[in-house]
Sequence to fold (1356 residues):
Amino acid sequence: MIVIIKSHTDRAGIDEVIAEVKRLGYQPRPIIGELQSVVAAIGDETTHNSLESLNALPQVERVLRVQKRWKLVSKEARSSPTVIDVDGVKIGGGAPVVLMAGPCSVESEEQLLETAHAVRAAGATILRGGAFKPRTSPYEFQGLGKDGLRLLALAKKATGLKIVTELLSEHDADLVAETADILQIGARNAQNFRLLVAAAKTGKPILLKRGLSQRVEEWLLGAEYILSEGNSNVMLCERGIRTFETYTRNTLDLAAVAIAKSETHLPVIVDPSQGCGRADLVPALCAGAVAVGADGLLIEVHPRPAEALSDGQQQIDFARFAQLAESLQPLLRTVGRSA
Amino acid sequence: MIVIIKSHTDRAGIDEVIAEVKRLGYQPRPIIGELQSVVAAIGDETTHNSLESLNALPQVERVLRVQKRWKLVSKEARSSPTVIDVDGVKIGGGAPVVLMAGPCSVESEEQLLETAHAVRAAGATILRGGAFKPRTSPYEFQGLGKDGLRLLALAKKATGLKIVTELLSEHDADLVAETADILQIGARNAQNFRLLVAAAKTGKPILLKRGLSQRVEEWLLGAEYILSEGNSNVMLCERGIRTFETYTRNTLDLAAVAIAKSETHLPVIVDPSQGCGRADLVPALCAGAVAVGADGLLIEVHPRPAEALSDGQQQIDFARFAQLAESLQPLLRTVGRSA
Amino acid sequence: MIVIIKSHTDRAGIDEVIAEVKRLGYQPRPIIGELQSVVAAIGDETTHNSLESLNALPQVERVLRVQKRWKLVSKEARSSPTVIDVDGVKIGGGAPVVLMAGPCSVESEEQLLETAHAVRAAGATILRGGAFKPRTSPYEFQGLGKDGLRLLALAKKATGLKIVTELLSEHDADLVAETADILQIGARNAQNFRLLVAAAKTGKPILLKRGLSQRVEEWLLGAEYILSEGNSNVMLCERGIRTFETYTRNTLDLAAVAIAKSETHLPVIVDPSQGCGRADLVPALCAGAVAVGADGLLIEVHPRPAEALSDGQQQIDFARFAQLAESLQPLLRTVGRSA
Amino acid sequence: MIVIIKSHTDRAGIDEVIAEVKRLGYQPRPIIGELQSVVAAIGDETTHNSLESLNALPQVERVLRVQKRWKLVSKEARSSPTVIDVDGVKIGGGAPVVLMAGPCSVESEEQLLETAHAVRAAGATILRGGAFKPRTSPYEFQGLGKDGLRLLALAKKATGLKIVTELLSEHDADLVAETADILQIGARNAQNFRLLVAAAKTGKPILLKRGLSQRVEEWLLGAEYILSEGNSNVMLCERGIRTFETYTRNTLDLAAVAIAKSETHLPVIVDPSQGCGRADLVPALCAGAVAVGADGLLIEVHPRPAEALSDGQQQIDFARFAQLAESLQPLLRTVGRSA
Fold:
């Protein structure tokens, strides 16, 4: 770390900082500048105490980190890309870009099975669908719960699609893990660290959505929570961040996909449906996601979006999904990631 | 709700919207405009299905809500302000502005007791202190856990101060409720709806922090989750939102305090320590918070901030807290809210 | 427009709103709801006064717009895409994706000519380079000014590349237009409406960057200022918006590119260099931009980025630019937009 | 500056950085760490070239600034607060908090004079009113222009109030300065550096609004542009920043007021009307602004807000302004800043 001392601080003030740096287990290296001095602190920032509390000293202007805060997710920890094998479907590395598709919410047996067959026919290998739904208002549809899980199991049996579904509660970790092939952690729980740990402990692959206002660093540290529990089957999922823009529901940050691919060994999935909140923009954003290097796409598909119990505005129907999957083929071949 | 139809839509397209509105349980009132038409949908938006899924129809441009989404927290549901009685300490209404103070994390018996005595002497009536800490990185201090709760109980016994401490996990709701007089829900869990419900069910008063990027509407709907479980002892807590500004850790949104006071019957607390992340700005922001109408202040105080195990940069020491509490007195008298 | 009346407003209060709507030139259509009433106002919102001032009435809750605010840039105004002919280089429609490349700032004759030859060899047809630089601090390099323009003219003569350069001041509009083939309006001046008008009046094609925190609607209305002066040769340029993320300098909003393509007839350019502020991310974002439908790319290239007088961190050198241009070819062919 | 070297960089890579630091005029001080090395660069960052371009070197991870970037506005440049004397009205230092009030736009002689008399009677000493209006859409009312200036001069003569009005164009600097006692630079032009310089050169006091997404550092550097032209009569004006919140038009950042007061010697004004965009919140935010230390308030007042040609939703009428001015008195006395 680097401790910046306020200008006009006398030697005694600098010495006090040096002493504190030493007390916290770092080797201090003072650098007396023309106008301002700094104390560099040598030591592993990820195992020693943070020096940020030194900001509390009146003569300290700022404390700057030197090291990156993530370890297990980094390419230094593992130089080859993690390829997650979801019961035969491979995600990451050079594997074909995986299509995960299905309704925002599981609503009925008919709706789910109809959708499962349709998305499989169009090329999806993983079925998405929410049984437990986190809703902004308590008066909105909260999902079918256990019944939804039952329907997902049914759809899996009927189609062979693997299942990704959201885990909302620590209490439900084992229950959801019985049905799900991939546990999804939603954006609103991206820093619900207890839930991350509970999910990790099931041993299932985890799809970790980026929080609504989560910096890339914080997102990677969320994944770090999971890896540090011994579960390294984590997919990062970019799903748009919250900004001032109101035309779209969120702002899809495709640079974050490139960063995650470059900083970590983990697969990166893009959710264009949540990412913009508008069905009409989904195809363009799928193409953009593939072009920047995404390993998979998570797309909301509903038989009749206008009748959806949640987020109809961003779901596409079967015909449009089939057309989208088809239209992505040339691009997937160009980037060498077609099935 | 108001459904805006795209311009140049023919009558059949409009009729399809009208039929959908009717199917979803609303009375449609079409208004055919010069350039654009709308269909107003009469019905209670909070009990009927949302019409937002109609965005999925190609002829629909946008769907606009008319009604506010919150009910139980609103002044229509209860015209007089909620005054929460925390074992004799009153919060809200015309009650004196309450000072909640203490360390970011409970670190040791000595640290906590020393702080408890100091903040009580300066006028605080509630002791804050984290036993379970949500930390961005798994490598940071995670709190003393149960031992922290034990120390909080000790401090309560020694000083008579009431205790506010954070609940991180559904599993711990009853455990934390044994010690805490007020359960705090942190910003990162502001939309962890299962945790809100678990906290509500303990029956304890709840201090609900605003999420990092939570709109006021969403914050009030978070409180609505708690009230709809039958627990109406909720304090809203503004603690800064995440913006592009980097000089401060968060941007304290004092307008949100005024809005919450005007839209709801609930007490509103301000946390200036998290709100700016800088000890030097805490006094000015406390004054600002009182002036806009806050019912209480949540202030981080530590015996030696530079040695704190978390967030030292935003904690103030005993002398500064005593000085701050003293300096607020004339302002509190001016607004008629001194003890 | 739709005027939402507060619940529990009596008939006299509603009638007052109706009268105001009429006075402002609209036909009022009151809709009396179960819980809340609205007054729809029929009339052209773009030619009548805004009704937003009615928010000032105590019984009015909110005023909502129905119509889009842009006209001349919309596809309703012109159904075929605008193709801008920059002295033989075509931009927009189905034309090949145009590469605009060059240094952030013009620094010297050698630097500029060297760069011009290199980017031309790699496939660029337009040379970028700032002669007048808007810098955050008055102590930073402000550009070579007129001398920079002279060097740009020299480079044009030597290479045949067309020139795009920024216009900072109304005073310089004619001066810059003498040299520039395209006038760039920078993000910081995106709502300097007088500059937009001055630029429009030169008759030159204009590249309009999106402001740092400009909503898409406001960006399109900025273009509307230019078109309403009779100059329809406008390219919209997405260059990243300001968000809470700090890993990148800005957040490139590729959804905005898709929206601008879908809502308007104007070409859309993407600036990935400013868009992320990091040379290492430029190639991935170029690919993403092409995939979502960009008509051109604006890329910062410098002989020796580490020695650049401005923004070295986001400029790429000749070898990397040549490699980038090459690597984009398969993608450009796939989308049918290669040269 | 501090140059952070990527881990695993060999000695030759570090030496290359050292050589570059030296070439750019700084004294390099390499610090070889356990896991990562840094090169501290000793020298005045405000007079030497920035080292940020070193980010372009492959072995450089990041470059961090040590020094603050502002100079003339800082308390180091001038330890006593600047008190601006606007023809007898003092602003800043311990002077009474000044009330600047008037309509968003000058609309007519009657409207302006009526307002001027009313706000003067309630205690305002400065009249605000826009003659040139920056409007998001070209189809909105653009202000009365020269005629508006004439009416402002008339109102000044009739009431003795000083005039603050916005300067939109470099061309109009002298024209507006003839009438205005204070030139306002609006948020959309906060980084229109040529306009800042043109305004500075008139010698008039300048009210510099913070840009919509301007960091405090950038806002102070905008003021630095004006001071470095020899005009030190600058008032900083916080007017809300753009965030994700939609309940209010902007998010008023009162911490920025405290920071500006602590970092600079300049007076700080708060504009609560723009700051929230809602008349109902103006009184609470005025109180908050005074409590955090504002030197003045800029408040929009209109005879009949519902009929205003711009921003009626945030303007208050005469009765409410008089009541507001009255209600602030006890607070102003408490902070020792009443007239």
